[in-house]
Amino acid sequence: MGRKVAKFATLVGAAALTLAACGGSSDEASTETEAGGTEAIASQFDLTGIPVSVGSKDFDEQLILGQMMVQALQAAGADVTDKVNLGGTAVAREALLAGEIDVYMEYNGTGWTVHLGQEDPSFNSDELTTGVREKDLADNNIVWVGQSPFNNTYGFAASPQAAEANGGPFTLQTMMEYVRDNPDAVVCMESEFPTRPDGLILTEEATGITLPEGQSSILDTGVIYTETAAGNCTFGEVFTTDGRIPALQLSLVEDPGVNILYNVSATFTKDTYDKAPEAFDGIVNAILAPLDNATMAELNAKVSAEGEEPAAVAKAFLVEQGIIAG
Question: Which CATH number covers residue 214?
Answer without folding.
Answer: 3.40.190.120
